[in-house]
Amino acid sequence: MTQQIVQPIRSAISPEQIIMAIKNMEKELQEAFIEDLLAAVSPEYLESIGEAREDYKEGRVYSHEDVFGE
Q: What is the reported pTM?
């Protein structure tokens, strides 16, 4: 397994400012931002999305009722 070297990002925006901006987003935009962030930093996340899409395309899906009952 290869290890990536990640350089820290230097920014004039503090982590607190980023957090406040995210908290002030509408819920739908927050969720989209978090998904985009996960996709940008996690190859495993992107792979799981690809697998889920393939499962759906092949009909390997279950309804809410199948999984959790009535």
A: 0.52
